[in-house]
User: Fold this.
Amino acid sequence: MIKFKPGEILYTRVVDDACIVHFYQVIRATSNTCEIKELRKRIHSQNFDEQEVLPIPNEFIGPSIRRKVQKSGCIMVQPGHYAWPWDGATIWQTVIIYMP
Assistant:
């Protein structure tokens, strides 16, 4: 089983009608559980209907949540909503707010 480290950043990509990306930062971790908080994100670039986003470390936008680490190395934030380790690259999502 993967053990996360405090400060590590995770991401989710929820695809429904739109593709939305969320970033989370690990606050505390044990071998079986993780406490994470959602991070604010910034738009790196955008075109007409997509945005390239990055997390802003240590800028939290919600309360912390504690979840069990899955055997596959991810964290189930909500049913059908899994957080995976972020590789540091920008991630594309559907435009939420258009920034000219």
